[in-house]
Design goal:
The chain is of the alpha/beta class. It is built from 8 helices and 13 strands. The chain folds into 2 domains: 68 residues, Beta Barrel (Ribosomal Protein L25, Chain P); 167 residues, SPOUT methyltransferase, trefoil knot domain (Alpha/beta knot, 3-Layer(aba) Sandwich). Helix 2 runs parallel beside helix 4 and helix 2 packs parallel to helix 8.
Length: 249
C-alpha cells in the first residue's frame, strides 16, 4: 500500500480528508480510486489504514479501517549537523540518513562550504523537506526527521555544546580516539543522544576543530581512509546504530 504523511487535521475520528498537491498526486499520478487502501501517518508514530471513498484532483476522502503503532524508530537519537554540500550531495545525505533512522538534521555552513550564505541554504528548505518526507514514506518510518534552520558553524557548536548527550566531530586529523572507543563504557556512560558534525568538501579546518573542542565536542577518527563529505555522516551513523544495538539484535 502507498504510504503518505499528512497533517494531523487531515484525520478526524474515523474519517480522512486530503487536499492540495497530495490529492492531485493520488488522483492524477497514482490513479487511486474508491476502494483502494492507503496508509496515512500524522508523524505521531501511529499509522492509519484508510479505504478511499471519493477521489478527485481537489480532494480525497476515506474511511479509517485500521490503526496501529509502528514502533520502528531507533532508541538512539542521532542529530546530524551536516555541512551544506554542492549539487545533489546534500540531498543524498538527507535521504540516506532518513532511511537509516537519523532523528534530526541541522544544515551548517563551515569555512570550506561552497554555500556561505544562510539565506541561500534556507531557500532550499522546501526541496530538502520533500526529500526527507519521501524517504520516510518509502522506508516505512512512522515519524520523519526534523529539519532545523541552517546555522553557521560557530552557532551550531554553541547549540550542540549546550545540549545533553555526546557530540562528536569525525576528522581526518584525529588519530588517538576512534568512534568505536567513544561509544564504549570505559569512555563514560553510554549516551542515547548523539550529535555528529560532518564537514564539507575539503573537511573542517584545524581552527574549526579547536573551536568545537572549546564546546566539549570530541574529535574522532573513522579509520585510515578518507570518506567523502556525503558518505561520512551515513557511515558514522550506521556504526553508531550498530554499536548501540539499533540495527537489530
Amino acid at each position: 500500500m502507498h504510504r503518505f504523511f499528512v497533517p494531523p487535521e487531515a484525520l478526524s475520528q474515523d474519517a480522512a480528508t486530503i487536499s492540495g498537491p497530495l490529492a492531485h498526486q493520488m488522483h492524477s499520478v497514482l490513479r487511486l480510486r474508491p476502494g483502494d487502501r492507503v496508509v496515512l501517518l500524522d508523524n505521531s508514530g501511529w499509522e492509519q489504514t484508510v479505504e478511499l471513498t471519493a477521489v478527485s484532483a481537489r480532494a480525497v476522502q476515506g474511511q479509517v479501517v485500521g490503526r496501529s503503532v509502528r514502533a520502528n524508530e531507533p532508541r538512539t537519537k542521532i542529530t546530524l549537523y551536516q555541512s551544506v554540500l554542492k549539487g545533489s550531495r546534500f540531498e543524498w545525505a538527507l535521504q540516506k540518513g532518513t532511511e537509516l533512522g537519523i532523528s534530526e538534521f541541522v544544515p551548517i555552513i563551515a569555512s570550506r562550504c561552497i554555500v556561505q550564505n544562510l539565506a541561500d541554504a534556507e531557500a532550499k528548505f522546501p526541496r530538502w523537506q520533500r526529500v526527507i518526507l519521501e524517504a520516510a514514506e518509502q522506508c516505512g518510518r512512522a515519524k520523519f526527521p526534523a529539519l532545523l534552520p541552517a546555522l553557521m558553524f560557530s552557532t551550531a557548536c554553541e547549540r550542540a555544546g549546550a545540549g545533553r548527550g555526546l557530540t562528536l566531530i569525525p576528522w581526518e586529523g584525529e588519530t588517538a580516539f576512534s568512534l568505536k572507543w567513544m561509544l564504549r563504557p570505559e569512555a563514560g556512560e553510554r549516551p542515547f543522544s548523539i550529535s555528529l558534525f560532518i564537514g564539507p568538501e575539503g573537511g573542517f579546518t584545524g581552527d574549526e576543530v579547536e573551536l568545537a573542542a572549546d564546546y566539549g565536542i570530541r574529535a574522532v577518527t573513522l579509520g585510515p581512509r578518507i570518506l567523502r563529505a556525503e558518505t561520512a555522516g551515513i557511515a558514522a551513523a550506521a556504526a553508531i546504530f550498530y554499536e548501540m544495538g539499533d540495527l537489530g539484535k
